[in-house]
């Protein structure tokens, strides 16, 4: 367990190494934990929700439907420890044995997200406070524990220890999920415990109050502090907020690390340990890379039908779901340790979305296939039975409310499991595809960057995630494999011939030099608007606008402009015109740099918006504007990739995907149109049709 108070030096090292480096600490135990080819399938089951005399029937049914694992216990603290220090594991022992009797592996969880009533009553200080200083109450919610509170931590450690002592060497247990969708209810904790931990963090980070004042730009509006005791939990100051969000990320990671270390300490190394990260867009202070050192790999959760961004009027978007966000979440999760699983996949209709439509028949099947296509080592669905009571009463499961009939979505799910089980033998571990190797693309990602931009957007339509999606989606339209990287990771052009740096606003000079070296060593760098506006502390440079990146991008930036959405501007690229309004950077290329795109109007008509230059062995492209419909970026990427890679096998519409996994290609269609998938003439189709209908799945081998 690392805390600022207990071991300042180690804590600081943890903070800096963890915050910057995604790669160096990765585990490489995929083959040990998942020796078989392909994907495992399982379900969430809550024995505590059902009469004991139904467990045997239900668990048997899980196996009969084709699943091979079952998930237990994540919210069952009150059942496991009904009174302080009094434990009841008999029910869980029985459920584990029933799983084993049916050849189901068990995923065990630590129940920290749900505090029992006895704990909240005896020690209300274990509950978080909101920014108005109102303390949470024990009202049937979850993720309300104050992670920084010593009593909370003690209790979490105790229940985790009890579980670990009992199950961490148990051969019936396959792996562990720590906590659930790690985050803090409401975003952050404003309790005195969090306040103290935040101030401790600042003391470690800055050492002296003068350094903190300097970093926070405290001379602005008399924010200067005389000592650390005067520091409040942040409000308006952007630098203080960035520090607070960073501290919160680290506190969330520390909680996971502590619990994982307990499980690991009691185990014999044969069980894996993960957590299930929720969709990243909504939780900017959650950084899955921070737990790379202690979790074996990251997994994720996904409910596709609740919110489809960039749906552009697709009439089936609400039924087919957010395939692009699903894919990005998979790639980001996989980038943590090189492999992943999906811990919660929507099985049917859900209860908490905007309108909770029924998925289109076939959609759930497509989602399962999509996970398989992207390489998930397991797919667990949330949940086996629809609950008859509680907050999620209207959340469908694999089974209907009678507990014995398979639901509409459940039928789709089970169908996909059977189909995949039949096909996965054809996977060829180690097989590669030349296009995938030549075009693999890194995306530089930092949640601190996102936090900093979102703190101050500068244009009301700016959305940092949408900017990242612009590039991600366009790369996927070409069928390119994407991996996410942190700035301390090795950026090797041999492994990632292309690197996109999307709106990386805070850059150190060291990072700028590293990007330059990447391009000189043969990498093709695509760096986008807003990047390098600030230094790594979040201050503007004492220099001309973005001047520290001028040499890298090969041009002089004069200023940036923004327009109202009803008065967009135009940029030309390759003879076509594209509209933009959120961000346009007005540039003049240096000698040796080519302007790839010019402003067609405004008072700076004729100036450059896009630059391209050759580096020693690679190239640098600077995209200084963000087009309104993302087509400028698509055409530009095609142009660049075509010139480097040669023929591009795919030109897919948004929301249609083609993924390569160990010798098999899989295409999925999240649009309302029939899409003709361009497979090679000599390809062998294993499932589906080339003319792919909405919710269709096509699998082929070259
Ligand atoms: C997830 C959560 C699950 C369950 C599910 C319902 O976000 O992790 O515990 O609540 O939503 O869709």
List keywords for this structure.
disordered N terminus; alpha/beta; binds beta-D-galactopyranose; 20 helices; Rossmann fold; 26 strands; 702 residues; 32% helix
How are the elements arranged and paired?
Layout: H1 8-20, H2 30-33, E1 40-44, H3 52-64, E2 69-72, H4 77-80, H5 90-101, E3 105-109, H6 117-122, H7 150-167, E4 173-177, H8 192-206, H9 209-215, H10 238-266, E5 272-274, E6 276-277, E7 298-302, H11 317-320, H12 323-337, E8 340-345, H13 363-374, E9 378-381, H14 408-423, H15 434-439, E10 441-444, H16 447-455, H17 464-477, E11 482-485, E12 498-501, H18 509-520, E13 524-528, H19 550-553, E14 555-561, E15 569-573, E16 576-589, E17 593-599, E18 608-614, E19 619-623, E20 625-627, H20 631-645, E21 656-661, E22 664-669, E23 675-676, E24 684-687, E25 691-692, E26 697-701
Parallel strand pairs: 1-2, 1-9, 2-3, 3-4, 4-5, 6-7, 7-8, 8-9, 10-11, 10-12, 12-13, 13-19
Antiparallel strand pairs: 14-16, 15-16, 15-17, 16-20, 17-18, 18-19, 21-22, 22-26, 23-25, 24-26
The protein binds beta-D-galactopyranose.
Beta-D-galactopyranose binds next to loops.
- The first-to-last residue Cα distance is 50 Å
CATH fold topology of the domain at 434-645: Rossmann fold
Biggest β-sheet, characterized?
11 strands, mixed
Round the mean pLDDT to the nearest integer and report it. 95
- SS-derived structural category: alpha/beta
Q: Total number of β-strand segments?
A: 26
What's the CATH class label of the domain at 434-645? Alpha Beta
